[in-house]
Amino acid sequence: MSRPPIIRKQIRPNQQTPNWSDYDGLRATFSWSSARRELTGLPHGGLNIAYEAVDRHATGANRDKVAFRFLGDEHSHEITFSQLSLLTNRFANTLRALGVQQGERVFILADRIPELYVAVLGTLKNGNVACPLFSAFGSSPIATRLSIGDACVLVTTEGLYRRKIIPIRAMLPGLHHLLLVRDDAGAQPIAGTEDLAQLLRTASDQFDIVHTVPEDLALLHFTSGTTGTPKGAMHVHDAVVTHWVSGKYALDLHPDDIFWCTADPGWVTGTSYGIIAPLLHGVTSIIDAADFDADRWYSILESQQVSVWYTAPTAIRMLMKAGAAVAHKHSFPDLRFIASVGEPLNPEAVWWGKEVLGLPIHDNWWQTETGGIMIANTPGFDIKPGSMGRPLPGVDACITRRAPGGKIEIVSQPGIDGELALQRGWPGMMRGYLNNEERYRQCFSDDLYLTGDLARRDADGYFWFVGRSDDVIKSAGHLIGPFEVENALIEHRAVAEAGVIGKPDPTIGEVVKAFVSLRAGFTDSEQLRKDLLGHARSRLGAVMAPKEIEVVASLPRTRSGKIMRRLLKARELGLPEGDLSTLETGP
Ligand code: AMP
């Protein structure tokens, strides 16, 4: 069906007036310093994300408002802003009593349970750096991240501890405290761990937030590149200004909203928008710990009266696959805005939202390094389906190209593909990759932060995603570094070398596919491939492990020895092989 290139903005009669409806006007008058003044600041000076998110509401008109509603099979569990303040005080006091010093890192590995949220916010109150990890990771990515991040404290559940931490405990000598959410209250202590519930029970619920300043480190989020180990992007308390502004203008949060961000806090979206931004706006968030299920998700939108919903293309495509009939069993009179992030959102999905849910899906773009949404479609403006939208106030985006001498230049004319770059200067930008200054430096050309994404800008200032400039894989919205997967595969005794690519998939964007060559004495068989898949799954967890393995005689390498993933991918997809001048052609 041919459809118009634009969906005109349409505000329903019962809807809020959008926070932003004069695109150029707000961009012209906006400044980060005035946005910062919309926040409160610590009572005796300084800035702390948890204070802005929790305590300033806990003492004001929002004190009895629900901050989080955790959905359960039978009952849901609500935490108000004032209860959240007391709980996070207890957690902060626990860290203080353990002697955890300002700036030390507290990792949280848990499903979406209340303790995760309390631990992240309590960590910030004590001036420590919070690092939530995705609980579906296998032991190997967990160990890598805990050791790069020099974890001092790990908060986790008994089940995850037994399955994923015990095998790697000896590799983490700097991990001083393991705080466990136990299965049974009052069960026998587990040697080398402490019972979180007991610690919280005995801790005071009064706490003076540590005097953090805007440039103090607050959050550590891992992200993957093409080569090398994952990078720990460091964010400071000043990022709260970006969370506030993007919550207001990109997600259009209003005080009476019921907000549902479906991302897990183990990824940056689940922290910036699953925890911080809605709290800043005094908004109630819905938290669902269960896995995706179309009917369940529609029931949540309906029964929880969700008004703003932030989700991802993979989930939308899965809903599309489930069929419109499942959606039509429900009605969503309260839903007024749907946004999506993480992968390209095809125009078909934007229209599907409009036709089946009554609202188009608004794509937006950002990445771990940017700390918050940078480019967005918002309710105050027309949408161009397939486009990521336009830059937020305070964000200057451009398309760049490498000039013949190697210098990065801004492309001023529209319609040209090039690397997407952002002018330095917004508060949410990472302040570095932990212990990797060189890699951080490579992200910049003068005042431009180079995103690693290829994009195009049209004459109306809308940005269109073209692809990644590297070999990183996006599978179900999760960024996966091929190198980490290859490393796990070559630990298997049958594997001589491994090359990993993302293979396009209509639902989850890309699936991880591995090519391996075998050591002498091993031959290809279905059983061997099964073993390899099982090995990768147990090391990496289901999200990162390859779904397909192909045994090949050898892998294409450059003359300098790097695996040519680009060539593996072209061959897999039957595409032109491109420039092969660097291909090692054998002895
Ligand atoms: P992460 O750092 O894990 O959040 O992943 C960031 C990357 O996801 C970006 O650099 C893009 O490659 C991709 N991404 C995020 N949002 C979008 C979007 N709206 N359209 C296309 N790709 C996106």
From TrEMBL:
Group of enzyme by EC: ligase
A Pfam family it matches: AMP-binding
Molecular function in Gene Ontology: acetate-CoA ligase activity
SUPFAM superfamilies: Acetyl-CoA synthetase-like
Domain of life according to the entry: Bacteria
Gene3D superfamilies: 3.30.300.30, N-terminal domain of ligase-like
Domain AMP-dependent synthetase/ligase residues, every copy: 60-434
UniProt keyword annotations, A-Z: Acetylation, ATP-binding, Ligase, Nucleotide-binding
Domain AMP-binding enzyme C-terminal: 484-562
EC identifiers of the protein: 6.2.1.1
Cross-referenced InterPro entries: AMP-bd_C (IPR025110), AMP-bd_C_sf (IPR045851), AMP-binding_CS (IPR020845), AMP-dep_synth/lig_dom (IPR000873), ANL_N_sf (IPR042099)
Entry annotated with the keyword Acetylation: yes
PANTHER family to which the protein is assigned, alphabetical: ACETYL-COENZYME A SYNTHETASE (PTHR24095), ACETYL-COENZYME A SYNTHETASE 1 (PTHR24095:SF14)
Protein name: acetate--CoA ligase
Gene: acsA
